[in-house]
Known about the structure:
two-stranded parallel sheet, 13 helices, 2 strands, disordered C terminus
Amino acid sequence: MAQLVARFLHTEEVIGSSPVSPTSYSSCMARRESKRSLAADFFSGVGLLFRGLRVWGTAPRLMLLGMIPALVVAAILVAGVIALGLNLETIAAAITPFAEAWDEPFRTGSRLVAAAALLTVSVLIVIYTFTTITLIVGQPFYEMIWGHVERRFGPLPENPLTFWQSFWRGIGAGLRMLVPTVLVGLMLFLLGFVPLVGQILVPLAGAVIGGWYLTVELTGLAFDGRGMSLRQRRVALRSHRAITLGFGAATYLVFLIPLGAVIMMPAAVAGATLLARRTLGESTVPLARDPGSTRLPPQA
């Protein structure tokens, strides 16, 4: 599973490679410093999400507007999740017909495992779907939040796309990301049938992979505003894997909290803007003066 997650994020380090020789002290120290740096970057990514909360202090009305589309979409999806929960036992029995002839407690145990795996995968897909639909529905509000954050830290990028071009581009990117999300969800569902190991690894992998997809989606405004494609967005985020993983995992876990997604959605957009600036080597230190209407040229 560790190899799968590493490969998914295109990790350059080869899992299971030969360990550093104990006689090579300098190599061991370099590797230890690298691990410390990765840990620091991970928690730096977590911190970017909570830095997004500070926008409540600089633009509270704007952040309240950002909660409206999140609340509407969440209400619809919560109804679906409740329906799934009420019928979870029936669905679990339907997808495990092979266990019908098994003796107890194996029949019940297999259905409990199926229900847990189905719930984990459903949460992954629901959170991604919530984020995608909310960003589409509330695009005007989230564009204002994105612009507010950009102006606090530097010139506002010159967006080469019109509103409708950005709108349809966002839908296209969301659909392209939805397909692998569903495929990964199916893989995690099957992995959930592995006794003990599956129940531990599936939620962990869900947070890692779900966090990655969330981050790719949330940073769309910042990268699109610079005229960068979905592929360029992925490349930039993968170049800072630890920070991206920290931000994504923290956002994913916060979204699991009841009403957490509604309250944190505007902050996640603000934090994702900071993450995009960090991955592109731009400043995340607030300006001491108002940059006015100065704009950056679009990225090639």
